[in-house]
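Hi support team,

I've been running sequence recovery on a batch of backbones for a student project. Most finish fine, but this one hangs at about 90% for roughly twenty minutes before it completes. I'm not sure whether the input is malformed or the queue is just slow. I've pasted the structure tokens below so you can try to reproduce it. Let me know if you need the job ID as well.

Thanks,
M.K.
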């Protein structure tokens, strides 16, 4: 075998030396591609691609979310919990023309830290005995401290107060509008702590009670159910604030 001349042999070595770095880079690049491709394959095995969602899947997910969601409490439930500690049952004995006494009942609401009770005057008017029962069960004799016949309003003071006096918050009736929700809480027909709901039906109404010579003015009309025993109870807005006192049930048949 013949040998290359020295000059050609030198040029061949230089050519090989120039090619080697490129070969090394190509080998490293190929190894990098293989490693990356292997990582992609491994990831696809460990974490397979998600199954495409269908419209049916989306509908099922939405239905499950609605089914498991806890609905917020109704405004009426919140209003009731707010006012209940301030609610008062009022029982009276009223003498009649024959010298006997007849029982009566109504509702009231505590309005300050001193335990004053706001109610309707006709609930306690001419009563020889007034007994109040607070929300915690505390019973006490009471007497009329303030009365406003023109508004059918009375304020009572109790001889004995509960350990914890829970006054209601007085709201602004002028902030109400026709159609706003309104709630009545009281003791209709002696049913303690009953609630009815409705809306504000009108303002500036007037009404003459059948057993009174005075006509009441600037009344709020509501469509919530009201029965005997509700008188003196609070009329409430959605925040549980007192915006009025139940004073009369207008019966169109009378």
């Amino acid at each position: 075998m013949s040998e290359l001349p020295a000059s050609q042999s030198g040029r061949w070595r230089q050519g090989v030396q120039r090619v080697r770095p490129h070969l090394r880079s190509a080998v490293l690049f190929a190894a990098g591609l293989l490693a990356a491709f292997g990582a992609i394959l491994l990831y696809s095995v460990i974490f397979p691609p998600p199954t495409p969602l269908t419209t049916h899947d989306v509908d099922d997910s939405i239905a499950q979310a609605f089914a498991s969601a806890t609905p917020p409490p109704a405004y009426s439930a919140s209003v009731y919990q707010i006012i209940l500690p301030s609610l008062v049952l009022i029982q009276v004995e009223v003498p009649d023309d024959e010298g006997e006494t007849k029982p009566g009942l109504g509702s009231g609401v505590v309005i300050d830290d001193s335990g004053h009770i706001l109610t309707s005057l006709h609930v306690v008017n001419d009563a020889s005995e007034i007994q109040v029962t607070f929300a915690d069960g505390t019973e006490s004799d009471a007497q009329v401290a303030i009365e406003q016949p023109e508004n059918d309003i009375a304020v009572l003071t109790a001889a004995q107060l509960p350990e914890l006096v829970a006054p209601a918050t007085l709201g602004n009736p002028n902030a109400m509008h026709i159609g706003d929700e309104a709630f009545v809480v009281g003791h209709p027909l002696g049913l303690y702590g009953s609630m009815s709901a409705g809306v504000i039906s009108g303002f500036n109404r007037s009404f003459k009670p059948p057993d009174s010579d005075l006509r009441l003015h600037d009344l709020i009309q509501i469509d919530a159910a009201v029965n005997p025993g509700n008188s003196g109870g609070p009329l409430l807005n959605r925040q549980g604030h007192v915006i009025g006192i139940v004073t009369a049930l207008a019966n169109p048949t009378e």
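--
Follow-up from support: It reproduced on our side and the slowdown came from queue contention, not your input. The first helix runs from residue 6 to 46. No action needed from you.
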